[in-house]
User: Fold this.
Amino acid sequence: MNFPLPATPFAYFVDAFDPVILHIYGPLSIRWYGVAYLCGFVSAILLWLRAAKTGRTNLTPALLEELFTWEIAGVLVGGRLGYMVLYDLPGFWADPLSILRVYDGGMSFHGGLLGVVLAMFLFSRMRKVSLWHLGDLGAAVAPFGLFFGRIANFVNGELWGKVTDVSWAMIFPKAPLAEAAPTVYFESALAQGLANPRHPSPLYEALCEGVILGCVMLVLFWRRGGALPKARPGLLSGLFLILYAFARIFCELFREPDATLFFGISRGTFYSLFMLCAGIGIVLFVLAKKRSTPDVGTKSGVSDNAGKNE
Assistant:
């Protein structure tokens, strides 16, 4: 089959980055995706330690580091298991060991969120720390991980958007050819199987879920000495769920569904609707409660012994 070349063959940016930074041995390598997770985790612990230093939490640095370990486990286990169950259940049943092949990619934010919630719940019970406060701490730093993760998705050339003719469209060589849509053909696309210009949806998500949501969360968490999360523990958690759900649902309008649809909508939108309902429920519950005494860590609100690892 012969394909005509356009007059300006390099009019679109080609997302053809190498996802591997350094090969070590066999499947072992240093990848941008792993570096993105590392950047998100480091940003989170640094912000938490700063919060402890400025009185926005009474959890000690030692306890925050312990919480950090629990959160990492929740993100990684929940994210991977969530992806296999929520997006690739047939593949998981056919090959359960595929869950260990993290180097092939595949992490779910919704699964990671459930893993983090479970980790926070267990940590709260073990260390007698306010679950609402832990949720607010998580909400303040989650956009960092979302931002770096979406940038890594872009570098990997995955989670591409729908075919479009907007001037900022990009070529995702790994994406399948949509023959009914306008197509750009040139050497780099031909070498990798042809591709259509598409919305750079990972960048949309990095902006909405990472930058914009992150700015809102940081302002609410930091302004006036952290007055809002102290006076209304849990409110920041609920707002995060609501705003993330709106951001994700908006971005799903431009993203090519990466799994079969539920009730005519993408799975990302479907799962985000549950987040939206949960967030609204939390906000209404928190606002219905009487204003509490400042809660910056312990269930009792007393700070003298807060965060001690006994």
The chain is about 55% helix and 5% strand. Residues 163-198 form one domain.
